[in-house]
Backbone:
């Protein structure tokens, strides 16, 4: 009778550990991909951000164009995802529109584009009522001088604070030293520029997470 050969103690345990490790390694590329940020036009967008202590999730993103040119990758961050514009307008919470700049613009060009889009998205009465806030926004843009490819502009609505803007992490100030616009209607109209009925369909659907 052959003597039974005993396996060294712990060999089976070690083999199981190695097999589990190999299986985990094989899954790593998949796991990494699932957690990666969303990418659009070479711009990586975080799937979530924290604004004023509140976590927001990426609701959607799209390329905003000016004529034939790609101006920026626009992203919309909300407390929870929704494809309903009315729900976004009525949301009593923090909201963020993020602009990831794709080409250079001077402050005068930015102001001109903003004014044209804002006026188109507002009613005549709303526009007249918001002359003050519009002037504040214009002065904030004037303090930027210019934006370049790779710059990031965040435009946030924070309840109790108002509408604030940052350029590459720096809080923008307006004439007189203020850094927040208290009028929520102004921000609502700004949202309409991106997700309202008059916004370009591709941009609107992208931000609302609607597939064309």
Residues:
């Amino acid at each position: 009778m052959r003597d039974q050969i005993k396996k060294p103690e712990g060999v089976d345990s070690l083999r199981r550990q190695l097999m589990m490790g190999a299986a985990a390694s094989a899954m790593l590329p998949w796991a990494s991909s699932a957690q990666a940020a969303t990418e659009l036009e070479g711009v990586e967008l975080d799937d979530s951000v924290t604004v004023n202590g509140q976590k927001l999730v990426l609701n959607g993103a799209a390329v905003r164009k000016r004529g034939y040119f790609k101006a920026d990758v626009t992203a919309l961050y909300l407390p929870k995802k929704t494809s309903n514009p009315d729900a976004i307008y009525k949301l009593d919470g923090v909201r963020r529109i993020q602009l990831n700049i794709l080409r250079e613009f001077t402050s005068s060009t930015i102001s001109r584009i903003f004014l044209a889009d804002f006026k188109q998205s507002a009613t005549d009465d709303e526009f007249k009522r918001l002359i003050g806030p519009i002037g504040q926004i214009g002065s904030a843009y004037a303090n930027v001088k210019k934006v370049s490819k790779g710059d990031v502009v965040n435009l946030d609505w924070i309840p109790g604070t108002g509408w604030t803007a940052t350029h590459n992490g720096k809080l923008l100030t307006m004439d007189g030293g203020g850094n927040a616009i208290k009028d929520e209607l102004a921000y609502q109209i700004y949202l309409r520029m991106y997700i309202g009925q008059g916004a370009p369909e591709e941009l609107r659907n992208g931000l609302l997470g609607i597939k064309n």
In short: The helical segments are 11-35, 85-90, 107-121, 124-129, 131-142, 184-195, 201-208. Residues 38-208 form a domain with the Chalcone isomerase fold (CATH 3.50.70.10). The chain has a mean pLDDT of 84. The first strand starts at residue 38 and ends at 40.
